[in-house]
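Example with several molecule types.
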Amino acid sequence: MSAFAAPVPDQVPLPPGFRAGGVHCGLKKNGDPDLGILLADQPVEAAAVFTRSRLLGAHIEVCRDHLARSNGMVRAVLVNARNANCATGRQGVEDARACCRELATRLRCPTEQVLMASTGPIGAPLPTDRIVSHLDALLARASADRGIEFARAIMTTDTHAKVAHWHLAQAEATGFAKGAGMIHPDMATMLAFLLTDARTGAAGTMEALLRRVADRSFHRLTIDGDTSPNDTLLLLASGRTAADAGEVETALTRIGSRLARQIAADGEGATRLVTVQVRGATTEEQAVHVGRTIATSPLVKTAIAGRDPNWGRILSAAARAGVAFPSESCRVWIGSTDVFAGGKPLPGNEPAAHRHLSEEREVVLGIDLTIGTANADVWTCDLTAAYVQINADYRT
Amino acid sequence: MSAFAAPVPDQVPLPPGFRAGGVHCGLKKNGDPDLGILLADQPVEAAAVFTRSRLLGAHIEVCRDHLARSNGMVRAVLVNARNANCATGRQGVEDARACCRELATRLRCPTEQVLMASTGPIGAPLPTDRIVSHLDALLARASADRGIEFARAIMTTDTHAKVAHWHLAQAEATGFAKGAGMIHPDMATMLAFLLTDARTGAAGTMEALLRRVADRSFHRLTIDGDTSPNDTLLLLASGRTAADAGEVETALTRIGSRLARQIAADGEGATRLVTVQVRGATTEEQAVHVGRTIATSPLVKTAIAGRDPNWGRILSAAARAGVAFPSESCRVWIGSTDVFAGGKPLPGNEPAAHRHLSEEREVVLGIDLTIGTANADVWTCDLTAAYVQINADYRT
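Resulting structure tokens for the full complex:
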């Protein structure tokens, strides 16, 4: 899969005032970095969106508590891979808090200005000693040019690091994400971090902003319909640089969408990045709902794996989304080719649709419901035998 | 998969007054029977439950119309495989009606006393000539001892025929089903037929009865989360024999459950029949909802394929069902072995759970939510690389 993903740059610029880095503390067996840090020179404003699962990773309770006590001000975010610190009870929460406290001591800041995020298999105690004993090395490593190292440290089954960057007129914005399985709204990704030096407004505004960004980016992504208990999206904004509010939202939404598409392209076992285009819905929310139903259909996803321009499965999936639309007027396309229109299949067009699925690595499916004017795109990947293999063998 | 399914009997008894049979009319390439009939000596009372998809196979409109016009009285049901007659527009409805009319002429009964059901790929016109030209042979074939032939005629990707029979104190009940993919509530199967000579009460009562039966059998089954546009469950009751209403409902529910479990066991590519037991929910409906969420999780289903006693995926799936339950008191088991209890994993028990998944062909997963006293079982199968292969290559 990494074969077709956009090449990962050697460097990703961080907004002024931010540093990042990663070290290997012994969680990944192959020696790759597994402990990362995002560091702000001064406390910056933060907002977060967490999983809606009823099972919560321990770091989520700690993040919520720290953000409440710090009034949304954050100095550093510590992230470990290969251990989700989830279903670990009260001890898990104490462990996450201890890691934050140890890092805060070294930064000479209040404990609540440090956040933590964990990702990986659930149920094992967090190896706090191992993490704490590498904090000095991690802090020494953090610099303005090691964003990529952080992106690598948070990878689990990802095959490539996920970064995106956007220049605003005055300011900068950078995003990081990880995730390749157990990916579904809401949240749609396990961990994602957005950094900017732009001024985003008051703390309340910032959370609403982040929620809008998530709704139009990560929440439109699904790999396998499984929501993780650890999903976390954090926005850190130093506010050093004035910026137009609309421009900031656009930049963050584009970064979020790029990261979401990178995650879809890196879906476990995936060979195709799939964009599901829903057109002609009554509301944008309805378009997203129909798009998600198509994007989570195993029959649609296996058809893509088989390069089969199977309009019937797309139409059937849309039809079970609970939205009434006339099959006589609706239209289904693959790539730029209609495969169903006017209530009838267009078998003569299937060869062109097959070529699109066979030759393109980023493929498009679409349906026009013809009941309104609202549109939405949803991203997913194909479902291959390799996905099954990866997840059948994950722990063994 | 058929390797472990219960052996299909050579014969299945039909209730008195019913005949069945099947012929090959040229829809299946391998020469197997592809056109089946269920025939009652006299018109019998009927009730139906259809798919909730917004895309409907043509036969569903015809069935609804005929049942309304015949006041729920049915003489015969004609079923073809390998062509769903779906997304075929007005012509599809006319085609289905023509088949019913031709059969009714031969039976010297009103057209509306004949129903039809179709299953297979969607979008191709129904080959009515081929079907009609085989009706005489089909009628000649119908007999009291050819239930199995009917069961074979309605198979598509099924690897074995699905039948179940129940002796009531006085009466008999027999069920047939087909389905191996695109299986999900509601309906949970593509086609299923229940026959009984028992008296079931008035037509309105009978439909309510069938809905209760479906809710506790076919609606608790999921293969891949994809609902088909053709799903149809028909109950034909001759009412010849007096029977206790409770006994009839129990018998039909057991037959439905057995058929649903046969469908799960024959899920495309499946190697395990999985029973998901949800205990300690607030309501039965809630228990079913949590069970379905677990049973549709690709991560749970691939773990079973890998014989991985992955309690974390079971717990995570339950946690995203939108039902709040305390992870501290909840319990997760595999087979008869607890793998998570008291807020903690029990790694010492995983070898026994692994043995259950490795050695049994019918496996059990369970969770006690500890928030109430309602229970439900949901049936599914594991998700294997073979499922992907079958569905990637279905049309090619």
